């Protein structure tokens, strides 16, 4: 599954980010768009979250020093489709993905353990395709409030063990889920560290 965590970040200078006013009330109490910046090790990422009042979201992610952009569509918190573009040539220049989730309840609050699976069907830039199924063993770790920039957000921490049913490859990930945003960020090597939050930003677009 594409890393969303929910969903990485346009690389910004800290001074520029902190100079912008942030509407914390709009983040918590409305469906205003939100940009979150975070890092995992020395890898900086950004997500932009566009919400509606029914729990549906569109999440954009930018990572790999701006060389990779992904867009994910979530219906009731469940990932249903995605698109990627990158600065690389060949089949990985772009892709479109359809997802089928099994065992994931709508608007899952991440406050309990859950086993579920995701089947992804990918079409790459060169027309080649790939289908794979990954099973997840999600474990709830903690819930609380955390300061992100000037705002205090609810944060649900969890960890997952994953198995690719085709290759047998296993992996582990860390997640921070934000109930007020209906969005999450995922760390592949360690728990992500939150850096900043914005309500005024330039919308991401695909890499041409």
Which key features would you list for this structure?
208 residues; mainly beta; 12-stranded antiparallel sheet; 2 helices; 55% strand; globular; disordered N terminus
Q: What features would you describe in this structure?
A:
- The chain is mostly beta strands and 208 residues long.
- 6% of the residues lie in helices and 55% in strands.
- The protein is built from 2 helices and 12 strands, in the order ααββββββββββββ.
- The chain has helices spanning 14-19, 24-29, and strands at residues 34-40, 43-51, 57-63, 68-75, 78-86, 94-102, 114-124, 129-148, 151-164, 170-178, 183-187, 193-198.
- A 12-stranded antiparallel β-sheet has the order 11-10-9-8-7-6-5-4-3-2-1-12.
- A hairpin with a 5-residue loop joins strand 9 and strand 10.
- The two termini are 23 Å apart.
- The model is unreliable at 1-19 (pLDDT under 50).
Order of helices and strands: HHEEEEEEEEEEEE
Shape: globular
Distance between the termini: 23 Å
SS strand fraction: over 45%
- What does the main sheet amount to? 12 strands, antiparallel
- As an assembly, this protein is single chain
Low-confidence stretches: 1-19
Helicity, in percent? under 10%
Tally the beta strands: 12
Give average pLDDT, whole number: 91
Output the strand order for the largest sheet.
Answer: 11-10-9-8-7-6-5-4-3-2-1-12
How many helix segments? 2
- The radius of gyration computed from the alpha-carbon positions, rounded to a whole number of angstroms, is 16 Å
Structural class: mainly beta
